[in-house]
Design a protein that fits this description.
The longest helix has 41 residues. By secondary structure, the chain is α/β, with parallel strands linked by helices. Helices cover 50% and strands 12% of the residues. The relative contact order is 0.10. The chain has a four-stranded antiparallel sheet. The protein has a four-stranded parallel sheet with strand order 5-8-7-6, sandwiched between helices.
Length: 622
């Protein structure tokens, strides 16, 4: 929370220590009898109430002899093989004391374009938002209101005090008010915002209190941790990651955010004025905060749905084919005979059913990008894991077993024992296997078509190419022997197969029989158990898509929720004795959070740093 530099005035032996940092760490290192401490505190309160980020500046004269002695100790500490950081901290404490307060600075850390709308949409999408910042409490609260994390209807639970007992009393009192008794991501969420500073967070994260503190935090709609160190940010993320059955995402733009970015399940870094440390340490890097909305709502949802369907379909298509070996083993008395020729078994996954999973995993889009951006409620289905649950998995497994059984039993009933070809020959085992294999490919292909949501010419090509490839393969493979010692078992099987009327009966009737259950269930679910995705896709098909209730347009004015000094502060009944704060008078769209600068060009705001310049700043050799 502080940074110091030792300087010497040119041409003299006078050495001076210059220190900047948060008021919480600067004031405790000041010498007695300061001239400007009370005035500076008043200024800091006023600046923080206006939503500005503040720093204190202090200095101290360092005697030359003391500096030389301290420098030797610091060099030794810097070269220590054990406890190096602790030894260096001791040296810092020796020199950073008896400071003289010069004053304070305040800057407007402006909100990025689209940040308030994105945060409001995250909340509507069921994402719990926690802000971990080094700002003062008043600044953090006002920025929370400006970016719509905190709303006027929200009661603020503010931790007051400095000791462990104070922290425990706050936790117990607030927990009793909210009824927090279990840690789950599905806790009843109250219209409350939890505000805690770094000093109280030290106590809240101890082994005695961290469980109760997390119970309380999970019942609040928003959590703001202010005046926290980088280590505390990482500790909070680790606590949630370890104790709550949820996926954590940490996003930041500076080097002080690297710890929490690496501690979370998913780390997102913003490349901007604060350097590329966060971007380099993250899983994903974006240029502005608002891009996180598309990363989650569009690409995140699509990726989850695609992967879920690819996994389920891969299990399905393999069970449908290979479990038939079990049915045939029962029929043949476990003699060891196989029903399918070995090469057809081997290339089932690498040729004939290779492309449908690619179409599902790469080309499929469940609800368009535009609709997902305007309908945050769609993300709740992704969070709930609707597309990949134990129930869904076992439903696919059961369906695969059902299809496999129907195809095998009905296939043998149609072509099995006693059937004779037109030339008087009996239908052989390999011919029956090839016929069942053909029906299986048709059923699996149509099942892939029922799974996919978006159709393009490339999707059609990937889905339907398996059956033609099999027919071509069968014509070629059945004619290799005796020219090539390959395909002996399938020699002339294609002629037997295509000259048999029962075969054509099979490839028409059996897919209809097997897939009638799929189509029926799909129709019933679409009629009686419609999901939000079903509704939105139907609206897209009818060109009647509308914005989700509560979703705000980026072009809407952000200055509607403006608080004035004479307005009553609505902290609600959950916060007895709430401290009065000067409220933010300026409009909520005051600029850029995450230190993104801007310029004015022809009356429109734009980033002063071009996107191409940011891209070129990346070190691609990492």
């Amino acid at each position: 929370k502080r940074m110091s530099v030792v300087v010497r005035k040119k041409g003299t032996e006078k050495i001076k220590l210059m220190t900047k940092g948060a008021d919480s760490v600067i004031f405790e290192r000041l010498a007695p009898n300061q001239r400007y401490d009370k005035t500076t505190l008043d200024h800091l309160e006023k600046f923080a109430a206006d939503g500005l980020r503040t720093l204190c500046i202090a200095e101290a004269d360092i005697p030359l002899d003391f500096y030389h002695d301290w420098k030797k100790r610091f060099i030794v500490a810097s070269q220590a093989l054990e406890n190096r950081e602790e030894e260096k901290d001791k040296c810092y404490e020796e020199i950073e004391k008896n400071l003289f307060l010069i004053g304070a600075t305040a800057i407007e850390d402006k909100l990025q374009e689209g940040a308030p709308e994105a945060i409001a949409d995250f909340a509507e999408g069921g994402i719990k938002l926690w802000v971990l910042t080094g700002d003062k409490q008043e600044t953090a609260i006002n920025i929370g209101h400006a970016c719509r994390l905190l709303t006027p209807k929200m009661s603020l639970l503010i931790f007051t005090g400095t000791t462990f007992d104070d922290c425990r009393d706050c936790v117990e009192r607030f927990r009793t008010m909210l009824g927090a008794d279990s840690i789950t991501a599905q806790n009843k969420v109250h219209e409350a915002g939890l505000i805690i500073d770094g000093q109280m967070l030290v106590h809240a994260l101890t082994d005695e209190l961290k469980h109760e503190f997390l119970l309380l935090a999970m019942c609040c709609k928003a959590v703001v941790c202010c005046r926290v160190t980088p280590l505390q940010k990482a500790d909070v993320v680790r606590l949630v990651k370890k104790k709550v059955n949820a996926i954590t995402l940490a996003i930041g733009d500076g080097a002080n955010d690297v710890g929490m970015i690496q501690a979370a399940h998913v780390g997102v870094g913003i490349s901007g004025q604060e350097g590329l440390q966060a971007a380099s340490a993250s899983d994903y890097s974006i240029a502005q905060f608002r891009f996180l909305k598309k990363l989650l709502f569009v690409h995140g949802s699509w990726s989850f749905i695609r992967l879920s369907r690819v996994i389920l379909f891969s299990f399905y298509k393999n069970i449908v084919l290979y479990i038939m070996q079990l049915w045939f083993a029962i029929l043949s008395g476990f003699s060891g005979q196989i029903i399918f020729e070995r090469w057809t078994i081997g290339i089932y996954n690498v040729a004939f059913t290779f492309f449908p999973p690619l179409a599902i995993g790469i080309l499929d889009q469940t609800v368009s990008s535009k609709s997902r951006m305007s309908q945050p409620r769609l993300y709740r289905m992704t969070q709930a894991g609707t597309h990949f649950k134990k129930r869904v998995f076992w439903a696919w497994i059961t369906l695969a077993l059902y299809h496999s059984f129907i195809i095998f039993v009905m296939g043998f009933a149609t072509l099995g024992a006693g059937n004779v070809l037109s030339d008087g020959k009996m239908i052989g085992n390999w011919t029956i296997g090839a016929a069942i294999y053909t029906v299986t490919l048709i059923v699996v292909t149509i099942r892939a078509g029922l799974t996919i949501d978006q159709w393009t010419w490339l999707t059609h090509a990937c889905i339907w190419c398996g059956v033609p490839l099999w027919i071509i393969f069968l014509f070629v493979y059945c004619r290799l022997w005796p020219s090539i010692d390959l395909g002996v078992n399938l020699s002339n099987v294609d002629l037997e197969l295509f000259s048999c009327g029962f075969f054509w009966f099979m490839i028409i009737l059996l897919p209809m029989l097997a897939l009638s259950l799929d189509v029926g269930v799909k129709a019933l679910l679409a009629k009686y158990r419609r999901t939000v995705e079903d509704e939105v896709m139907e609206a897209e098909a009818n060109n009647t898509i509308a914005k989700s209730p509560g979703t705000r347009s980026r072009s809407s004015r952000e200055g509607q929720n403006i608080y004035h000094d004479d307005d009553p502060v609505n902290y609600g009944s959950l916060h007895p004795g709430a401290m009065p704060l000067r409220k933010l008078v300026t409009a909520a769209r005051r600029g850029f959070a995450f230190s993104q600068s801007e310029t004015v060009n022809s009356g429109h705001r734009r980033s002063a740093v071009a996107e191409s310049s940011k891209i070129r700043m990346y070190n691609t050799s990492l």
